[in-house]
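Dear support,

I submitted the protein below through the web form. The confirmation email said the job was done, but the results page showed an empty box. After a refresh the structure appeared. I'm attaching both so you can tell me whether what I see now is the final result or a partial one.
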Amino acid sequence: MNSAESPTYSLLDLVKYFLKLGYSGFGGPVALVGYMHRDLVEKRKWISEEEYKEGLALAQLAPGPLAAQLGIYLGFVHFRIIGATLCGLAFIIPSFIMVVLIGIAYKLFGGLPWMQAVFYGVGAAVIGIIAISSYKLTTKSIGKFTFESFKTNWLLWLLFVSGISVTVITQSENVLVFIGAGILYMLIKAPPKWIKGGTVSIVLLSGIGFWEYENSTLLKIAIFFTKAGAFVFGSGLAIVPFLHGGVVNEYHWLNEKQFVDAVAVAMITPGPVVITVGFIGYLVAGFPGACVAALATFLPCYLFTVIPAPYFKKIAKNKSIKAFVDGITAAVVGALGGAVIIIGLRSVIEFPTAIIALLTILVLIFINKIQEPYIILAAAIVGLILKSVL
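What the results page shows now:
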């Protein structure tokens, strides 16, 4: 890392950039990561290609939201802890404010026909978007659906199928399954030296729910969302199956429709997709719940970025660590596929919603340049029309 060299930009310049990206960066984690490379590496040349690649590798290896972690790392490159902290906050806060405002509107108008009509169409479109995202994440993380890929990466595909099966059968996502997959793949593909040597180590406003919460609920939110931030690998949508298992099945904080609406909110707002945790937290325990959920989710990814950042060149070359993360990723991506099946079967129960979901998939396949927010907007309009005539 060339962090010893004097940067050609100020910390304020970088914070302003991430603030703008936070309120105008649509398209999900892959798009946001691309924007950072285009703007900071190619155009402004604030970050070198080597520094960017190191940050991207660390973001992929560590659990947590990909785009947010990369932004934190790029802030760390020349301005260390203060840069990582301010850039991370600048990137997250705009979309957090948006989801809280949407949460207020959702609590105020969620029972009104027009709001129900909007989410009728949006919810169906979200199913299609998640399905395509699951497919893309699978091909990127494991390989294409070809015989050669199945033959070469058979163990990763086995872990992937296991992730799907466990999720569909148990109707939940178990963190221990993910960790077990990582350990298994690591032991088979790149066992650490201490294993080879035979040594084992044990290693909230009145009327809108703004301030409505219970301390016990806040504690549960803190524990659950900390696990979400600490144990979920992959892009922003990789957290969906984990959230679904806890928020809907385990704690029953939201019903199926509300959860799909929460994912939809993540799609229609800029910035990191994972910020939907703020919306979920608001529905469960008002503004304090939103703050606790967001802080608990993003704090682990912040720590997983800034702590290893100075030593990452050495860490990145460790084959055992890479194998461990590859195994976890395969199981997590499989769980995402399983969550798509579960949520789809529960949410797409009418012919119009099935058509919207199918059309969303087709549009994303054949019109590559279209962004998700435009699909969500179109689905909202279709929902209003359908509800007015049905």
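Response: this is the final, complete result; the empty box was a page-load delay. The chain has a mean pLDDT of 83.
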